[in-house]
Amino acid sequence: MYKKLFIPGPVDVCPDVLKQLSRPIIGHRTKDISALQESISSKLQKIMFTDNTIILSTSSGSGLMEGAVRSFTAKRAAVFSIGAFGERWYKMCTANGIPADIIRSELGQPTTPEMVRNVLSGGQYDLITVTHNETATGIENPVGEISKVLKDFPDVIFCVDAVSSLGGAYIPVDEWKIDVCITSTQKCLALPPGMAIASVTDRAIEKAKTIPNRGLYFDFVELYKFVHDKAYQYPSTPSVSHMYALDFQLDRILSEGMIARSERHLEMAQRVRSWASKNAALYSNPEYLSVTVSCITNTLNIPFSELNAAMGKRGYLMSNGYGALKDVTFRIAHMGDNTVEDINAMLADLDEVIASFR
Ligand SMILES: *Cc1c(COP(=O)(O)O)cnc(C)c1O
Known about the structure:
Largest sheet: 7 strands, mixed
Strand content: 15-25%
Oligomer: single chain
Distance between the termini: 27 Å
Number of domains: 2
Structural class: alpha/beta
Order of helices and strands: EHHEHEHEHEEEHEEEHHHHEEHEEEH
Number of helices: 12
Low-confidence stretches: none
Number of strands: 15
CATH architecture of the largest domain: 3-Layer(aba) Sandwich
Helix content: 40-55%
Radius of gyration: 20 Å
Strand order of the largest sheet: 2-10-9-8-5-3-4
CATH class of the largest domain: Alpha Beta
Bound molecules: pyridoxal-5'-phosphate
């Protein structure tokens, strides 16, 4: 049965966007598909506030995360982890034989600029990864502040996981000098799962060209070449259907305006935060809360599985905790095309459901 999604991806997709998936397929080496990919790229550049090259990948975001550490690490990667998705990036390094160290923050806390400076001042790293928005704890890292530290380490490639925030939070890629900024379609962009997106700098690509064993399917040099040398093409066969939906949805996002969209996300977040503070407790450091997902400590004395089942009967799906926080927290996402009214309606039902347990 369909339930309205308040989980941190996948999220609900507007029916007009879903219709785009049923358009007739066109050839993947045609001028028409190049025009479609170029159109998508120029719209994404606006949403990401960047002039960098846009790479598409028929995979979820994890594919490009793995491709990034393979493509851009020559010496050693410093993986800053504030939860489950930092751990994943570290696993991608070790699984590929990429020399890497993981620098963990306490759960519920951010990566700080001081941590980054301390780690990089040793000089052994040439790539760092930072999670912009940790979906497990509902923390938004101070990426803008971290980017100021990186001015002193110009040879370090800066990779950012913005999977659960891009298209919801304000992420000025060029101002923050992010070399590789990665997202997926199924979170704040409010599209079906199945495609990933990254922006990449020319200097990162120049470096990647000197690195052996980058793999092939997620090799950023290969993906970049097909954009530049083949006039907006893709090395293998892309999900043409997703590309139609993406192009259409990006127009909707741009007509709302990326700034207005990020303000709407903040407003939804504030509504959920105030509910959580009143009825339970927010898990994470209040100074770094995510605008796209809230991680709530379950102080309700109701097992979350029962709460979610009762909400399910009313047509809603929320999310349990992730990883180490599976049983102590639950999560409410406020991302994508949902509105403050949607959040209010869901919270009103949640209040009634909680009352029914008392
Ligand atoms: C969902 C998520 C991922 C994984 O993305 P997929 O598209 O499922 O591969 C990575 N990082 C963060 C922060 C996420 O929320």
